[in-house]
Amino acid sequence: MEKKISQISDIHFGEKNFSQHLKNNLLNQLKEENPDLIIVSGDLTTEGYIHEYEQAADFVDELRSITNTYTIPGNHDARNVGLIHFEKLIGHRKFTHIDKSGGFAIFGLDSSEPDINDGQIGIDQLNWLRKEMEKLPNDLCKIATFHHHLLPIPQTGRERNILLDSGDLLRLFSECGVDFVLNGHKHVPNVWMIEKMVVLNSGTATTRKLRGNTFPSHNQLLIHDNDIRVDLINTETGAKREMANYSVRLEQEEYVVCSHNHLLNHD
């Protein structure tokens, strides 16, 4: 059985580099791909203003007309008391999605902090996440998503806007057996692997606020019984290329990523 998850991030309604053309391309590509699930990893808006959120809400409605969609806030969404609009127009700031037939569970967290670019998960969400994960059977692929990058991203310049409690979160992920982490924030697609855990970053899908030779993009995960493939999709052209692939198996009834091949480069 194949399950397809589209991960998009950093839409940025209100940003001067936002592109209506890219937004339309993205929607058409998602309709064509017909994923089982869409995850938006934060920064729907630029300044958190109501008019930006109204555009974002219309966009999220379009995503929901395609398939089941979950959205979490980013640092830009939390500006100017914007999380009030997020909760009213978009929805909950954290979520749990369990697909036993597809063999995976996804947990969404809010890493944003009002009016600053740094982020943190916080003790309340850490405790919530641990309790939620402890309810799961071990044979499911465990996926977590939040906006701020968990690990530094190459070719993004000086490191800043970090996740302040990344150490506590990494320990929790290790103890609970998290397999995939989906982030956004830096507008550069990237993949790391640490202790059999894949950390996957999405680029910006709908803006031209790009670093180096990167292009507007989003990610797609194809989950099968014995492997997971990650594709990088160019929102400008629709071109798709394999970013990484992983073999997976059950070891003593526990889901394990047992080998990998990373194909992404930034040249």
What's a concise summary of this model?
This protein has helices at 20-33, 50-66, 83-90, 123-134, 166-176; strands at 3-8, 37-40, 68-71, 95-99, 104-108, 141-145, 180-183, 190-194, 197-201, 217-223, 227-234, 240-251, 254-262.
Please describe what this structure looks like:
The structure is a single chain. By secondary structure, the protein is an alpha/beta fold. The protein has one domain (3-262): Purple Acid Phosphatase, chain A, domain 2 (4-Layer Sandwich), CATH 3.60.21.10. Helices cover 23% and strands 30% of the residues. The protein has helices at residues 20-33, 50-66, 83-90, 123-134, 166-176; strands spanning 3-8, 37-40, 68-71, 95-99, 104-108, 141-145, 180-183, 190-194, 197-201, 217-223, 227-234, 240-251, 254-262. Helix 4 links the parallel strand 5 (104-108) and strand 6 (141-145). The longest helix is centred in the N-terminal third of the chain and has 17 residues, at 50-66. The mean pLDDT is 95.
